[in-house]
Structures are given as structure tokens and as C-alpha cells.
Amino acid sequence: MRQSFETNCIGPLLVVDEFAPLLKKSITTPRIVNVSSGAGSITRRLDGSPSVANFKSVAYRSTKAALNMITAEQVIEFGELGWKIFAYCPGFTISNLSSLNTTASGAKPTSEGASPLVDIINGKRDAEHGKFLNEKGDQYPW
């Protein structure tokens, strides 16, 4: 679990902390997009959302929920400066996260999960600043 916290929480937090001085000097609107997961939504876990109900991983869920709180803190801290902050879930994609993240299990190519991220980075979803977005163009509850 400690390694998961280092990867999913501490790493993203340190990256923002280190780059914040440079972002403050930006002539364009800075954007922070933390790559989260619907599995980190406490609301979705408790309401039994089908896509996450059977996924059992306390470490992964906990660290993504913690990343969501880090995102919320960044919304408050940097939103006051005019920055746009988001949590983003790319959906169930092919990866080395587990043996289930395969095409045979229904995982989609990472490019499909990354494509909507480009719209966020390019400012097309700025009106949703401070939200937990997903690859379908919707929002997840925190």
C-alpha cells in the first residue's frame, strides 16, 4: 500500500509543487490534470456502481480517493490564481496495472482514454474546472 501511495498521491503532489513556480510565470492559463480513477470515487463505491462494484483493491481505491482530495486542495489553492484543475479518469484501459487490463477483459486502448485528455489540456472543458471528469465526457462524484 505504501508504494501505491507514493505512486498515486505523493508523486503527483510533488510534481505540482515543483512545477508551480514555473506555472505561475506562464502566459497561458495553467492546468493541472490528476489522472484518477472511478474506483477512487467514494460515492460510486458506496452506491454499488456496476463498473467498480467487483473491483477489489483497497490500496488502489484508497490512493485514488486520496488523489481526489489532493485535487480538491489544489482547486482551492491554485484556482484562486485562475488555474484550471481537474481529476480525470481515462476509463478501463489496457495496462500493466493488473492481469485484467487486457483487450480480452474489455479494456480499451490507452489512446481512447487519453484522447479526451487533450480537450482538457486545450481548455475545451475549462467550464468544468474543479470537477472529476471521465473519458465519456461526464463527471464522476467525488
UniProtKB/TrEMBL annotation:
Sorted alphabetically, which Pfam families does this protein's record hold? adh_short
Q: Which GO terms describe its biological process?
A: secondary metabolic process
From the UniProt record, which GO molecular function terms apply? oxidoreductase activity
Q: Which domain of life is it from?
A: Eukaryota
Matches recorded under InterPro entries: Fungal_SecMetab_SDRs (IPR051468), NAD(P)-bd_dom_sf (IPR036291), SDR_fam (IPR002347)
Q: GO CC annotations?
A: cytoplasm
Q: Which family does it belong to?
A: Belongs to the short-chain dehydrogenases/reductases (SDR) family.
Entries under PANTHER family matching the protein: CHAIN DEHYDROGENASE, PUTATIVE (AFU_ORTHOLOGUE AFUA_5G01530)-RELATED, SHORT-CHAIN DEHYDROGENASE/REDUCTASE
- The protein depicted here goes by the name Uncharacterized protein
Q: Which organism is it from?
A: Pseudocercospora fijiensis (strain CIRAD86) (Black leaf streak disease fungus)
Q: What is the lineage of its organism?
A: Eukaryota, Fungi, Dikarya, Ascomycota, Pezizomycotina
